[in-house]
């Protein structure tokens, strides 16, 4: 059974006692009652004994009606920071919370977990039936008999920007039934919002139309520039920022350099790595569908039970592969970049990057899907000069909305190239990318 993610780390904010306040109908502040409700939800609903660093401050801010931006490493407990307030807000004033997710797989994973915990949550998406989506909109608008039962609703940015959804929210807002807007994987506002998912750039309309509803944005990968873009696009310039350390001390970062017949060596190396980790759960990432299929065939030929996952497969097939991987039936999945985003599976022992990601952020995200249980894990990158040349060619051949976006893509690729061609500790370079210095006095990690 999966549980809300609850990783470890240290916060840059100073924690203070939770003195959450909420304005009741009579106008009285009832901080003590809310504290009791938070503790009860944590222990009775989520089956957790205590909050981790940073979570307390975020939950407090949200229940005070403040906007917030929470940055924590993968496995850092970000989802709990909107799920727990959603439960409290629903219990206290029958309000529902809206969670905006980038991927249907991530959405379904969280819904499955919430349902096991007995939390009433649903989604509006293309994978649902027309009648289901219609009923969900009626619940939001308060036009269904069971409207008060809804605790959380999950949608994509495209649904969140649709007229039908916004019209339903208007009706809910008038009856003060919206508790919170949560934007999961919020760095995608910056990464994807400029080109193929432009609806991300329209999420700021939520603050315009529903100013009294707090917005919480969470992410595992956001530089200072990206954080500024998130706050700007969501129109929450005064949002409280809680930034935890990006260091994942239990993950070792390893690089295998490929020379000569790169394509042949790539496949052979992947098989060797996966074979060396036989009996462990792992992920192999590849940038293209073609490489996903090729690596999958080679692993199958080596007698390794493996599944493939990419956008060219049907939705049902992708869900099947994800489900089998999460249950342990499939120990290894070969996938394109988005697989695993936000999925809470603690026992992933290794990640293989069959070719180089195009950005440091993508490398960090993919690597961070290992070791969420805080036990030792490894991220192995297969590096070749051929991959770098292909990526630069792809960028130069692509059509960008502006010269600025093209220049950003080139710079991001140069950043990751330098990370794996310098004789410097990769952990130090990785943390520096996010504006964090490596604390060498804390020898609780491997220096690569």
From TrEMBL:
Record-given protein name: ATP-dependent DNA helicase
Pfam entry (one): Helicase_C
UniProt keywords, alphabetically: ATP-binding, DNA-binding, Helicase, Hydrolase, Isomerase, Metal-binding, Nucleotide-binding, Nucleus
Record domain Helicase C-terminal: where: 261-417
Highest taxon listed in the record's lineage: Eukaryota
UniProt GO BP: double-strand break repair via homologous recombination
Subcellular location: Nucleus
Chief subcellular location: nucleus
GO molecular function, one term: hydrolase activity
EC number: 5.6.2.4
Family per record: Belongs to the helicase family. RecQ subfamily.
Enzyme category, top tier: isomerase
Cross-referenced InterPro entries: DEAD/DEAH_box_helicase_dom, DNA_helicase_ATP-dep_RecQ, Helicase_ATP-bd, Helicase_C-like, P-loop_NTPase, RecQ_Zn-bd
GO CC entries: chromosome; cytoplasm; nucleus
Catalytic activity: ATP + H2O = ADP + phosphate + H(+); Couples ATP hydrolysis with the unwinding of duplex DNA by translocating in the 3'-5' direction
CDD domains: DEXHc_RecQ
Ranges of residues in domain Helicase ATP-binding: 59-240
